[in-house]
Amino acid sequence: xxxxxKIPTLQNNGRYYxxxxxxxxxxxxxVSFGPADGNLTVGEIYAAFGKWIDLYAKFPAKMLSYKNPxxxxxxxxxxxxxxxxxxxxxxxxxxxxKSSDVPSGSNGTLIRTNRAKRFLKPxxxxxxxxxxxxxxxxxxxxxxxxxxxxxxxxxxxxxxxxNDTLKQIKFxxxxxxxxxxxxxxxxxxxxxxxxxxxxxAREKIKRAKVTRQEFDEFLKNISSLLGDLFELVWNTAMRPxxxxxxxxxxxxTDDPECWLYIPGRDISPIGExxxxxxxxxxxxxxxxxxxxxxIHLVPLELHV
Length: 304
Prior knowledge:
Blueprint: E1 11-12, E2 16-22, E3 28-35, H1 42-58, H2 60-63, H3 69-77, H4 85-99, H5 108-119, H6 133-145, E4 147-150, E5 153-156, H7 159-178, H8 184-190, H9 212-219, H10 224-236, H11 240-244, E6 251-252, E7 258-261, E8 284-287, H12 288-293
Antiparallel strand pairs: 1-2, 2-3, 4-5, 6-7, 7-8
Helix pairs in contact: 1-3, 4-5, 5-7, 7-8
């Protein structure tokens, strides 16, 4: 039987008034009610905490979506205050920042959210109640016509990026439904706008594959050691970093015709890679061709 959690209490660590609470996913988080020597009196801080903790018991996800508890109290206690689209996006953005360890500059969700906000700019002051499928269709049309600078070139958005942005907008509204910023009926209304189909916008151009002739020309311009490394990558499709980190302990030589290279085998039997949490093994076959051509890279102790 799960142990009953204690009622959160406000604590003063000497600098700030803080409370430790649990998020809906079970993880702990700390909410600050401001500095101990700030503009608010101790009585005002404790009064605000009392209101906040009562509302947190009813709407935990919604109360933890705000940057500070005072804004949360003001919005939730005053339900007549309408949530604008700009505020909804800002709340979602801050929630992603707090719940993700990925830096903002390389966080794909935040990049798509910023792009969505740019195209929603004419509607940022609108309430979420006023924004429907007709307005979202206009946003989609603007994205089809929109351009961006890539170096010195001006390019149009691809169908994939447009559909990803449309999906992000709908996800922000879906997130708002779970926190009672948006009504379920509004989200259903936005679902009437469908993503673009093939041919309706610019498609992403795939790079042409490198031919063996081009690869051989490349090998002529680098050292023999680097040439062996890239030859190994060419024959096995492993990453250059995996070829550079190859060690005797990572290679199984039970079958002389085909060795198995498991990067990071000393750390885990399935190797060390980004999907290891799913229990998947990463084994790279090294055939006799790879073994013979890459004697500088495959550890010499294994050549018998």
